[in-house]
Design brief:
Aminopeptidase, globular, 5 helices, alpha+beta, 7 strands
Length: 153
């Protein structure tokens, strides 16, 4: 088995951000306009406003991705964490989450928030193991989310 490598965003990897995330969003929910904007224009919607995207790569294959959306100078939102179906259950999600939290620290983040849904059990387990705590969910932020979590870095 090839070693897993965490690689930064580059325009050539943009299709994988869409492909991996669109698959899980469609499996559990439906694509919302903000999803489509992030899938189609990640540089404009995530990177240029001060966020980042990273990928998990095994050999020549991209098998996972996660992003950070800049909320403020000290707060980032963990967004769009997904692992390809053939790589699920191998710890890739945890590896991505740990790497993106380190990236948030490097970028000056003091806090990371995330919005998720109670039926995404594997993701919730990762977030809890990393130390994310439940927080009050503000109404209307995201239609599909019923949980907000946050973590001080």
């Amino acid at each position: 088995m090839d070693q897993i490598e965490i690689v930064p965003y580059s325009p050539e990897l943009s299709p994988f951000f869409k492909l991996i995330n669109q698959a899980w969003v469609e499996d559990y929910f439906s694509i919302e306009p903000f999803d489509q904007a992030q899938f189609d224009r990640p540089e404009e919607t995530i990177i240029q406003p001060g966020g980042t995207i990273i990928f998990a790569k095994q050999g020549e294959q991209i098998i996972g991705t996660v992003g950070l959306h800049k909320v403020s100078d000290e707060v980032y939102e963990l967004i769009k964490m997904g692992v390809s179906s053939q790589a699920k259950g191998k710890g890739i999600g945890m590896m991505l989450a740990q790497a993106i939290l380190e990236k948030a620290k490097e970028m000056g983040g003091k806090e990371v928030v995330l919005y998720t849904h109670s039926k995404l059990i594997p993701a919730l387990r990762i977030y809890e193991k990393l130390g994310f705590k439940d927080s009050d969910l503000e109404p209307g932020k995201y239609c599909r989310c019923d949980i907000k979590m946050e973590m001080d870095l």
